[in-house]
Design goal:
Length: about 70
């Protein structure tokens, strides 16, 4: 998978997560903390996709063995 394809995949995953958060955002049974936790994950996934595409040499942000 090319770096661009990896970035696009991560951005698609972030968009799917965003859709899920949007659906539960106004649900009073779901805490703000839980929604915030998932929003944080969405942002991190999107940032990793963009960073990996712009700076392929920086793909060492994971400890050895994690990406396997």
């Amino acid at each position: 998978m090319s770096p661009r394809e990896q970035c696009e995949m991560l951005l698609r995953k972030a968009a799917a997560d965003e859709g899920m958060v949007d659906k539960v955002l106004d649900d009073p049974d779901i805490s703000d903390e839980l929604v915030g936790f998932h929003w944080n994950g969405i942002i991190v996934v999107a940032q990793i996709g963009v960073i990996w595409t712009a700076y392929p040499a920086e793909r060492t942000i994971w400890p050895p063995g994690i990406e396997d």
